[in-house]
Design goal:
CATH superfamily of the largest domain: Immunoglobulins
CATH architecture of the largest domain: Sandwich
GO molecular function: cytokine activity; cytokine receptor activity
Main location: secreted
Number of helices: 7
Keywords: Cytokine, Disulfide bond, Glycoprotein, Immunoglobulin domain, Secreted, Signal
Helix content: 10-25%
Distance between the termini: 90 Å
Domain Ig-like: 56-122
Number of strands: 24
Subcellular location: Secreted
Strand content: 35-45%
Shape: elongated
Largest sheet: 6 strands, mixed
Structural class: alpha+beta
CATH class of the largest domain: Mainly Beta
Length: 382
């Protein structure tokens, strides 16, 4: 970016130095008239319902499907000279690497429905890159809502956390025909009149969002279909008074921008890791809290569900979900986790959830009990 800035400044200096003073005086009135006409045309031609900057050199245009156009500039000029410099024909524009017919400091992006996005670059007469703008197209809020209701897919983001340390993970599932990637991540705590400032480190695919209420860092998974975030200011022992709001901006190959948001308390998305069954004998099953769960357990108690199965299913990958079990037992404990097993039981399954809120159950952990069936058979033959 520093090199591009130097080239732009050098280009403007050379152009002004090479322009005869008498020509400037003679064309003063002409340029003034052209400036007024260009300003009128540029303002009147702006059709997007809104436009904003996602990050440096990335412009988002919100459209409603109607034809229109939006001006973008190559070289930065004073406000009173925004349009007067457009008479210069030395600036060449390219869209996605293909040279365009338009010339000058200003370029009109033509919008037809959701088309018009792309990589726009401007160059000097020698082909030197002067500046670039990536234009992304986003449907306006009203149209996005109609599409979401029509498709009945209002909850794209699925978020969960293993504990109350402030970390959480959100994922989304793309249709097999759609291709896109996360273009920007925004995470903050909800509060009145507060807005967070987010910055990105492209080389590390990490985002930092800070405000008076929170300080988040987020990174994109290697698969590109999920993010992991951490609220550095969150205290697990304090009451969670404000919800987390996560917004994922997804960019498609057609330069379309889609945004998906979700709001939640950590207590609403907490899902403990699987419990660890550490000791088994003929009459007793013992397990322990997940290593990732918060301590002390007396302050963060878990409720456990225990299911017993009287037959084996050696071909089952997960007998806890594939076998039919009797009525499950519920146990709450912050100390020793033990359960007495019936004599004929072959498989025992255990899972956990937060005892103090209506959270999601963890995945099942199971143990297959080994009974001394051979000895019993030999005794019966004697």
């Amino acid at each position: 970016m520093k090199e591009v800035h130097k080239v732009r400044e050098s280009y403007k200096t050379e152009r002004k130095a090479g322009e005869p003073s008498n020509l400037r005086l003679e064309n003063k009135m002409k340029l003034f008239v052209v400036s007024i006409l260009c300003a009128f045309l540029l303002v009147s031609s702006q059709n997007p319902t809104n436009h904003w900057t996602l990050q440096p050199n990335v412009l988002v245009l919100e459209v409603d499907g109607k034809p229109g156009q939006q001006p973008i500039s190559c070289l930065e000029m004073p406000e009173n000279a925004v349009t007067s410099d457009n008479h210069n024909q030395d600036i060449i524009w390219k869209k996605n690497g293909v040279e365009e017919a338009q010339r000058g400091n200003w370029y009109l992006v033509r919008l037809v429905e959701s088309l018009g996005g792309g990589n726009y670059t401007c160059h000097g007469p020698d082909g030197m890159l002067l500046n670039y703008t990536e234009v992304l197209i986003q449907q306006n809020e009203a149209k996005r809502r109609r599409i979401l209701v029509k498709n009945q897919q209002q909850d794209y983001l699925k978020c969960s956390t293993q504990n109350y340390n402030g970390e959480f993970h959100c994922s989304w599932t793309w249709d097999s025909k759609r291709v896109g990637k996360a273009a920007f991540i925004k995470a903050q705590r909800m509060s009145d009149g507060q807005n967070s400032h987010c910055s990105v480190e492209p080389s590390r695919h990490q985002w930092m969002c800070s405000s008076a209420q929170s300080n988040f860092s987020c990174s994109v998974d290697d698969s590109g279909s999920g993010i992991s975030c951490l609220d550095w200011q969150h205290c697990p022992y304090a009451e969670e008074r404000r919800q987390v709001q996560v917004t994922v901006f997804v960019r498609t190959h057609q330069f379309l921008l889609e945004s998906y948001s979700k709001q939640f308390y950590l207590s609403e998305i907490v899902k403990p890791d699987k419990v660890r069954i550490s000791k088994v004998n003929k009459t007793l099953v013992e397990w322990s809290y997940p290593s990732s769960w918060n301590t002390p357990y007396s302050y963060f108690p878990l409720t456990f569900q225990i299911s017993q199965f009287s037959r084996q299913c050696r071909k089952c990958e997960n007998p806890c979900t594939e076998l039919k079990h009797s009525k499950a037992s519920i146990l709450s404990s912050s100390d020793v986790c033990q359960f007495k097993v019936k004599q004929k039981i072959k498989v025992v399954c255990v899972r956990a959830k937060d005892a103090l809120c209506d959270s999601e159950w963890s995945e099942w952990t199971h143990i297959r009990l080994k009974r001394d069936e051979g000895n019993r058979k030999r005794k019966g033959q004697q």
